[in-house]
Specification:
alpha/beta; Purple Acid Phosphatase, chain A, domain 2; 2 domains; 6-stranded mixed β-sheet; about 30% helix; about 25% strand
C-alpha cells in the first residue's frame, strides 16, 4: 500500500505541476496577449491628422498588414523648423503667397491655426500653399518678418508626423522611412542670384575716389547684402583705364575693389560705353575680370567671344544666360572688343538650343534708353516701358515668346515697370546701381532682382531697391519707401 500511495502522490504532483505550468504559461499569454492569445498590433490615428494624410497612411498600414505592437500616428505644426526625433518626419512645408503684383511683404501670426484660417487669409489677401507648388507667378510673403527662402528655418509652417510604437525600429521605420523621406528647398539645393542694373564707376566717382582713397567706400553699404547670394551680377558700362578722370566714362583701376566687395560673380558687357577708353583698355578690363574669377556675358575680346552664352550649372540648376546689345553703339562685329550685337536668328537658335537642353533661359538686353531726366521733381515717364526708339514692350515680350524664362533690360538708367507675360517674367529696366548722376532723382535708384532657382525651376524673384545720394554711396532703400516706389512702377505695367 505504501508503494502505491507514493506512486499516486508522484503522479498527482506531476499532473499538478503540468497544470500549474500550463496555467501560468497560458495565463501570461492571455494577459499579455501573446502566443496563442496574441492580438495583432492596432494603428491608432490621432485626430490631428487630416484627410489627405490619412489617405497616405492607409496605403502603408493596409488591412493585410499585421503588426506585432500598436502604433499611434499624430501630426503637429511648427512655426520654425523643429528638432526632429528619430520617429518624426517633416511631412510638408506650407508658405504664404499673394498676388505677383502685390506690394505686401509679410503676414503676422502667433499660431498655424491663424495662418490656416480662411477668414484671416481673406482679410490679409494671402493663401497658404504647399511649398512644392511655389513658383514665380505668385509672391512669397514673410511670416513675422521671416522669409522662408532666406534660411529655410522660419517663414513657413512645418508639418511633422510622428509614429509612437514600442517596436518602432523593427516594425514602423522600415515601412515609413522611404515613404516620408522628402527633399525640401535648402541652402544646399537652391541657387540664389542677385541681378543688378547699370554700373559705371566713372566721371564724378573718379574724383570721389581720389578724395576718399578707398574704392570699397562706394559699396560698403551693399557688400554684405550682395555677397550673400551664390551669384551676383551687374552690367558694367565702364572699362578700367589709367586715364580715368572726372570727365570721362572710364574707371580708375582701383574700382575693381568696389566690385569684388559686393562679391561680383558675373559682369555683363553689353553696354554702349565700354569702348570709350579705347580697345586696349577694354581688352585689359576683360583680363582683370578673368584674373578675379568674374564670369563675363554679353561681351568679349572679339565678336565670336562676345556671342558665347554663359552656362551656369550649380546646385542642380541649369541656366543659359544670354545678353545682347541693341542700342546706340558699343557692339563688336569683328576681332575687336565690344558687346554682343543682337541678331534675331542668333537669339532664336540660342534660346531654342538652351530649352532643348532643359535649361532655364535668362536674356538681358541693352536696349534704347528712355531719356526723361528731370532734376527738380519726380518724372514717371520712364516708369512705363518706353524708350527713345522702338517698341520696347513688344520686343521684350517677343523674347518670352521665343522661350526665354526671364527677360531683363539693363540699359535703363531709371527703374522701369515689370510684368508676368506668357510663361515668363519681364523686368523692363533696372536703373543705376553705381553711378554718379545724383541730381536726377530717377537715376539714383535701381532694382535688385533676387532670383531663387530650385530643381531647374524659378521659385521666386524678390525685388529690392537701392538708392544713392550726393555722397555716391549706394544703399538699400527703406522698406516703406521701397514699397511705395514699387507700387508706382507696378501701376505702369502694360
Amino acid at each position: 500500500m505504501k508503494k502505491r500511495d507514493k506512486k499516486s502522490r508522484i503522479l498527482i504532483g506531476s499532473i499538478l505541476f503540468v497544470l500549474t505550468f500550463a496555467l501560468v504559461f497560458f495565463g501570461v499569454q492571455w494577459f499579455t496577449k501573446t502566443g496563442f492569445f496574441r492580438l495583432p498590433g492596432v494603428v491608432y490615428y490621432d485626430e490631428s491628422l487630416n484627410d489627405s494624410e490619412l489617405e497616405v497612411l492607409a496605403t502603408i498600414f493596409t488591412d493585410e498588414l499585421e503588426l506585432d505592437r500598436d502604433v499611434t500616428v499624430s501630426a503637429k505644426n511648427y512655426l520654425q523648423y523643429p528638432e526632429l526625433n528619430e520617429n518624426d518626419f517633416l511631412y510638408n512645408v506650407f508658405v504664404p503667397v499673394t498676388d505677383f503684383y502685390s506690394t505686401g511683404t509679410n503676414v503676422t501670426a502667433d499660431s498655424s491655426e491663424i495662418l490656416f484660417s480662411d477668414s484671416y487669409a481673406t482679410e490679409n489677401s494671402f493663401n497658404m500653399i504647399d511649398v512644392s507648388e511655389l513658383d514665380f507667378r505668385e509672391k512669397l510673403l514673410s511670416i513675422n518678418g521671416e522669409y522662408y527662402l532666406d534660411n529655410y528655418n522660419n517663414g513657413a509652417i512645418f508639418r511633422v508626423i510622428s509614429f509612437d510604437s514600442k517596436k518602432y525600429d523593427e516594425e514602423i521605420k522600415p515601412l515609413v522611412e522611404q515613404a516620408f523621406k522628402k527633399e525640401y528647398p535648402s541652402k544646399k539645393n537652391v541657387l540664389t542670384m542677385a541681378q543688378t542694373g547699370v554700373t559705371a564707376l566713372s566721371r564724378a566717382m573718379n574724383a570721389k575716389l581720389d578724395e576718399v582713397g578707398d574704392a570699397t567706400y562706394f559699396s560698403q553699404n551693399l557688400g554684405e547684402y550682395l555677397s550673400s547670394f551664390d551669384l551676383t551680377h551687374t552690367s558694367n558700362e565702364s572699362s578700367f583705364s589709367e586715364y580715368a578722370y572726372s570727365g570721362n566714362i572710364c574707371s580708375d583701376p582701383r574700382f575693381i575693389d568696389t566690385l569684388t566687395a559686393i562679391g561680383l560673380d558675373i559682369v555683363e558687357l553689353t553696354g554702349n560705353h565700354n569702348q570709350d577708353c579705347g580697345d586696349e583698355a577694354a581688352l585689359e578690363t576683360i583680363d582683370i575680370y578673368n584674373n578675379n574669377s568674374i564670369k563675363i556675358v554679353g561681351g568679349g575680346k572679339t565678336a565670336d567671344e562676345a556671342a558665347i552664352p554663359l552656362q551656369i550649372n550649380e546646385k542642380g540648376n541649369g541656366i543659359t544666360f544670354l545678353a545682347y546689345n541693341l542700342s546706340t553703339g558699343g557692339a563688336t562685329y569683328d576681332d575687336t572688343p565690344g558687346a554682343n550685337q543682337y541678331y534675331e536668328e542668333n537669339a532664336v537658335d540660342e534660346i531654342k538650343k538652351a530649352k532643348e537642353q532643359g535649361n532655364l533661359v535668362i536674356v538681358d538686353i541693352q536696349y534704347y534708353e528712355c531719356s526723361a531726366y528731370v532734376a527738380t521733381e519726380e518724372d514717371t515717364t520712364c516708369d512705363y516701358a518706353d524708350s527713345a526708339a522702338g517698341d520696347q514692350i513688344g520686343f521684350f515680350r517677343h523674347l518670352i515668346d521665343l522661350g526665354a524664362d526671364i527677360v531683363v533690360g539693363t540699359s535703363a538708367h531709371q527703374p522701369q515697370t515689370f510684368e508676368l507675360y506668357g510663361d515668363g517674367a519681364i523686368y523692363y529696366g533696372l536703373g543705376n546701381l553705381f553711378f554718379d548722376q545724383a541730381w536726377w532723382p530717377g537715376t539714383t535708384r535701381s532694382l535688385v532682382l533676387e532670383h531663387y532657382f530650385y530643381n531647374n525651376k524659378l521659385l521666386q524673384t524678390r525685388i529690392n531697391v537701392t538708392v544713392y545720394g550726393s555722397e555716391l554711396q549706394t544703399s538699400l532703400m527703406f522698406e516703406d519707401m521701397k514699397n511705395q516706389f514699387l507700387e508706382r512702377l507696378i501701376s505702369e505695367r502694360p
